[in-house]
Amino acid sequence: MIEKLEEIFAQFEQKVGGLTNQADILNLKSEFIGKKGLISEVLKSLKDATPEQRKAIGPKANDIKNNITDMVAAKLTAIEAQEINEKLASSRIDISLTDDVKEGSSLGGGFHPRTLIQREIEDIFLSMGFDILDGPHIEDEFHNFEALNIPSDHPARDMQDTFWFHDPNAQSDEKKFLLRTHTSTIQVRGMRSRKPPFKFIAPGTVFRCERTDASHEMVFNQLEGMMVGEDISVSHLIYFMKTILKEIFKKDVEVRLRPGFFPFVEPGFELDIKCLICSGNGCSVCKQVGWVELLPCGMVHPNVLKAGGIDSEKYNGFAFGLGLDRLVMMKYGIDDIRHLQSGDLRFNTQFKTF
Ligand code: PHE
């Protein structure tokens, strides 16, 4: 019987060597040392053995069981280690990177200045009970123009040079889809998805087919805001405008409010800020006028409320379209909007790193 046990152990050694799968190894283990395994089978015939033989066979069987258990455990650990190594080798995350990267060094991660300002503004508005909404970059004429009181023959369409898409399903060469020219599209989506009273902001990228210069980019960022309810007035609007500027600049900045025309607001205003790049003396960012248009705004036009499914007799509201990139420029004294999109690390790493 001793030989029989040794033979079984040899068989086990031979079989286990070729296995690489954890389940197969566990199966093999129970095939050999399980309750109905080969060893147990052998031990069943112990009853026919002499007491001498029993004394020798019992410990031998135990040794073999222990050996098999140890071998299985070692094998499983090895397989696990190999799997982890393979995963690490194919993973793109290098978890071995040490944390001794110096702040501001080329290896240190950091936030884009726009992200920093956007998060700050979002926090301010969240604390005042505003929601934060998002909307698609590719829009239709309805959301970008019609619902905002800009019908197709309206000259205001020319105010915003538009990138158009050709609708692949249209029979003719109709230009139906476009890259949104302003985040005001989200006013429409916001109104249609909620019931007044409500208030939200909507940061996002917008696109205009324009020539670029120090203060103009084809791809830039705005932050829309809208508040709709009963008895909303211009003083609410001014309060919120002042709050943002005070929180962002942490100092008094000179502003001026002048009438501005946008078909979706009535009355409409332009809120300008004294240029912080040149202190109002004139530079390429403010086009030598000393003031920068930062916050176009106004009281929502009744036609826009109607297009948003809102009873314009009962409710009114204000909206604004903050020039996010311009605000970032004013805050950090950046003299050319094109730096923001440049992806140049010498620019990006000047701001807060983490
Ligand atoms: N959507 C306007 C623009 O991009 C800005 C604006 C928004 C004006 C909301 C008034 C109210 O020029």
Question: What would you note in describing this structure?
Answer:
By secondary structure, the protein is α+β, with helices and mostly antiparallel strands. It has 2 domains: 2-90, no CATH class; 113-348, BirA Bifunctional Protein, domain 2. Helix content is 40%, strand content 19%. It has 12 helices and 10 strands. The chain has helices at residues 2-17, 22-33, 38-44, 51-90, 113-127, 141-144, 185-192, 234-249, 302-307, 324-332, 338-342, 345-348, and strands at 131-132, 138-140, 164-166, 175-179, 198-207, 219-229, 255-259, 265-274, 291-300, 316-323. The strands form 2 sheets. The protein has a 7-stranded mixed β-sheet, sandwiched between helices. The protein has a 3-stranded antiparallel β-sheet with strand order 2-4-3. Helix 1 (2-17) packs parallel to helix 4 and helix 2 packs antiparallel against helix 4. The longest helix has 40 residues, at 51-90. The chain is elongated, with a radius of gyration of 36 Å. Bound molecules: phenylalanine. Phenylalanine is lined by residues 182, 184, 262, 265, 268, 296-298, 319-321. GO terms for molecular function: ATP binding; magnesium ion binding; phenylalanine-tRNA ligase activity; tRNA binding. Keywords: Aminoacyl-tRNA synthetase, ATP-binding, Cytoplasm, Ligase, Magnesium, Metal-binding, Nucleotide-binding, Protein biosynthesis. One of its GO terms (biological process) is phenylalanyl-tRNA aminoacylation. It catalyses: tRNA(Phe) + L-phenylalanine + ATP = L-phenylalanyl-tRNA(Phe) + AMP + diphosphate + H(+). Belongs to the class-II aminoacyl-tRNA synthetase family. Phe-tRNA synthetase alpha subunit type 1 subfamily.
